Amino acid sequence: MISTPLLMFLLFIAITLVVTYWAARKSSGTANFFAAGRNITGWQNGIAVAGDYMSAASFLGIAGIIAFQGYDGFMYSVGWLVAYLTVLLVVAEPLRNAGKYTMADVLAYRLNPRPVRAMAALSTLTVSTFYMIAQMVGAGTLVALLLKGSGISFNGAVAGVGVLMVAYVVFGGMLATTWVQIIKAILLIAGTILLSFLVMAHFDFSLAAFFDAIAHVKSGGKVVNFLEPGLRYKPPYGAIDLISLGLALIFGTAGLPHILVRFYTVPDAKTARISVVWAMFIIGTFYIMTTFLGFGAATILGSDFIKTHGGINMSAPLLAQRLAGDVFFAFISAIAFATILAVVAGLTISASTSFAHDFYTNVIHHGRERAPGEEVRVARITAFVVGAVSIAVAILLGPTFNVAFLVGLAFAVAASANLPVIVFSIFWKRFNTSGAIWGLGTGLLSSLVLIVISPSIMGLDQAHLIHGAPLFPLENPGIVSIPVGFLGAWLGTLAGNEPESEAKFAEMEVRANTGLGAEKASAH
Amino acid sequence: MKNPVPAKPSQPETEWERIERLPEFRELIAAKMRFIIPACIFFCAYYFALPILVGWFPELMKTKVFGPVNVAYLFALSQFFMAWIVAILYVRAANGFDKTVKKLLERAK
Question: Which of A344, A403, A461, B78 is at 20 to 30 A from A141, Cα to Cα?
């Protein structure tokens, strides 16, 4: 028998496949496949950036953290929005003006393109792979849980998500990915508004009654004030861990390949700027409402109930079920599913673009396509490989694997490896090839090593991969690895001497700041 | 990648350098930095004040303001509005930069 949640999932899949079919008929040619012809408007791209960014971890995860740990979860959610100020003020416009399809375009501009692109592609693929595995394992667990009545297993769910994301990217390219993200973001916002409205209705639209309930939450037989800090971030390392995460978010969001590629889909830098502001309003509103959902789940359901009915990640769907019944539960579950699909599609296209454009065409074939359309064909094949590998790895790791740290690692690598070299290549005249290689290398390596020796992987119990006391006390390596990345890029620059790079700085500076010679939108 | 410069690109390198040396261009870069650097310092200071205050001054943060609503909650909530306000101020400043760029490109022709 087909359950209501499964029916809603199938409806969403049907709509997105129609969009993909439409996009497939429109998108031929390289700029169309990788950048949707650069014809996405400001508000559309803003919604798509939000759709690319608001993962199931933000929707279900943050609601859950607040339902269990109150204020500290709210504090955790803040950095995800503030991080967009770095994207807006520092990265979006120069990147749109000076690049073509990937982050490496901007780096390769002044520097020796082959080694720089090879390193940038490695870093991009690392970030995308870690993020993707986290999403896939999360997807499998969630879909199996949300569709409990329909007999869909973890492995089946992972394979289904993998096949769909590959289909969107291979057939519809960036245009289909963009519209899947737009549809998902609108559904997600609509669902959160509805659910917030129901929470407020439960408290007779009295904020005073709501906050009073939050200050007196029953948890494990005690009454706890959920508005007070200290339930998640405890001494001695709690606050430092949060600062380290904050650094990774503020420097890392502006280095996430799947967010950066979105700025190549708009006609010019001004539109890129407008789209970031749109994204910031959508993401901010979403996070504020999500915290209301979390506090709603804490007060209306209580963590004891949630624990016995599916666990922390089910806080928001269970709240929907309690407030408006099974159909609304199905609707919220379908939104969570849509959220996962849109994010993995964005990751797949950014990884495929980087491999095809940076590595295949520019590193292996010195920047020349041997046949028209070759770059797109390689990207499509890459999307298949990325899909197959993520399905295999997610199934191998299984539903019990702790994936939260993989997202943290993706942000840490983006912040420590990608951002220093992006910033230096835009703003520092002296910056050169050895600086880029050193910066990318040290940032990547230090994040990886610190994560391996952190409490996420090392621990004394069975749940950890390495048995032993963690050598590095923080979950998030940002506070150390970001300075290391900057230092590596700086020292590497001083060690090298490259007059060609300095000579091309004038061109870079004029392009980045005026848009002169920037890639144009293709005609409709 | 190599798009021609609007003026005759007999030697593109010097053409970029000529624009880069224009006083209007130097003024554009200076004006951008005058906004972007203080704005970045401000938002980082405002944001990192949150975990620092919560981590090292928890009693201050637990001070109640309206009913059960405390300083910690209001300060965290204010971060969202801070981000939006900085974004709006930047867009207003950037509209000015756009005008400068337009004039600059006309003059550079």
Answer: A461
